[in-house]
Design a protein that fits this description.
CATH topology of the largest domain: Diaminopimelate Epimerase, Chain A, domain 1
Largest sheet: 12 strands, mixed
Number of domains: 2
CATH class of the largest domain: Alpha Beta
Number of helices: 5
Low-confidence stretches: 1-8
Radius of gyration: 18 Å
CATH architecture of the largest domain: Roll
Strand content: 35-45%
Shape: globular
CATH superfamily of the largest domain: Diaminopimelate Epimerase, Chain A, domain 1
Structural class: alpha+beta
Mean pLDDT: 89
Length: about 190
């Protein structure tokens, strides 16, 4: 197979042959590693805690689904009853925006360990296709619930994405495949 068809081909598009790339981000250095055709990132683990202190309009904005609990670390996590409920949910983004909350919905998966969707209309993102910060919270949540440290997840947005997950105590690892999307030049 030609090298440019490999899942992590963006490493090689510009002749980059090292196994990792380091980015400077607002939250510090972010290293992306190419391991066996998957791109892996290492993030802090943000374990959410169950809460009864949340804007009541969150559940209403989600269409009053049947839910098992609400949790919070950075964002609110609403655990739904099953994957089908996560997939079919149609939020009222105007109402959700008024709450000022970012909301993750999640449930145990049928073919993967867990599924999710992420809504943040208050910052201009009705639904994010695949969300690293959400998984920084979901990985420790599901690791404890399922008694596993290595899991597979699927974000059920319109575009969707598969995330390979590993809980490492104070850190979490996320891996996935990517598709080269765009190349450009900035002329100043």
């Amino acid at each position: 197979m030609p090298r440019w068809l490999l899942p992590s081909s963006f490493f090689y598009k510009l002749g980059y042959t090292k196994p990792s790339i380091r980015f400077n981000s607002l939250s510090g250095p972010l290293e992306v590693k190419d391991e066996n055709g998957l791109l892996w990132m290492d993030f802090p683990s943000w374990k959410p805690e169950r809460t009864d202190d949340y804007p009541e309009d969150i559940i209403k904005a989600l269409g009053n689904p049947e839910y098992l609990g609400v949790y919070k670390h950075r964002d609110y996590i609403v655990e739904l009853t099953d994957e089908k409920a996560v997939k079919k949910l149609e939020p009222d983004f105007s109402l959700l925006k008024k709450t000022g909350a970012k909301v993750i919905i999640t449930a145990q998966g049928q073919k993967v360990d867990f599924v999710s969707r992420f809504f943040a209309p208050n910052i201009g993102v009705n639904e994010d296709p695949v969300t690293g910060s959400a998984h920084s919270q979901l990985i420790p949540f599901w690791a404890e619930k399922l008694g596993k440290t290595v899991m597979e997840a699927r974000q059920l947005s319109k575009r969707g994405g598969e995330i390979f997950c590993e809980a490492l105590g104070e850190r979490v690892k996320m891996g996935g495949r990517c598709v080269f999307y765009m190349k450009g030049e900035i002329d100043c």
